[in-house]
């Protein structure tokens, strides 16, 4: 059967590298694509002294392009410092894979975003790099742009699912415009906490469901 994929994409799709989970990771991300709704999780172990990525694994619920990109970028990132790994772009991944169809760019971007988010998560936990900054209202809003509204596939800020945010003395209170017993309430609750709790200066995240 003819496919739009290079031989290398097919090889990496059929025999993906670094698939799985890392228990107790130093950095973790779960990213979703607004374009197709697919998801990727990525886990890293990082050497604290020189910030080298010593282990990396991913799990994809995406397509062949996404799995092949996740596979190649995890191979590339292993052994790099986090600063070096942040520079890996979807274009680098596509080049390594012998090209990807234009229509599949977002799949490759999704895998690269997951890597960058896992590194960010590590920096947030450590309070280093850009994430040394204090958790302000603006930072919270930016983090919540990575939480998907399951009813639309777009983020919870853009879709006005968040009706209020307060940040005070390390306690973040987020009001969500959903009923407490809504079928998606626990998923939204978990995703918001996942994005905010790891930050070095956050003590507690309180979610209130205020929909009626
Ligand atoms: Fe969703 Fe490729 S179509 S990740």
Tell me what you see in this structure.
The chain has a three-stranded antiparallel beta sheet with strand order 1-2-3, covered by helices on one side. A three-stranded mixed beta sheet has the order 4-5-6, covered by helices on one side. The protein has seven helices and six strands, in the order αβββαααααββαβ. It has 212 residues and is α+β, with helices and mostly antiparallel strands. The structure holds FE2/S2 (inorganic) cluster (FES). Residues 33, 36, 38, 62-63, 65-66, 107, 110 line the site of FE2/S2 (inorganic) cluster.
Q: Helical stretch count? A: 7
What is the CATH topology classification name of the largest domain?
Answer: Sufe protein. Chain: A
How many β strands by DSSP? 6
- List all distinct small molecules, including ions and cofactors, that are bound in this structure: FE2/S2 (inorganic) cluster
Q: For the residues shown, what is the average pLDDT?
A: 93
Uncertain segments are: none
- Read across the widest sheet, the strand sequence of neighbours is 1-2-3
Assign a percent range to the helix content.
Answer: 25-40%
| Basic shape | globular
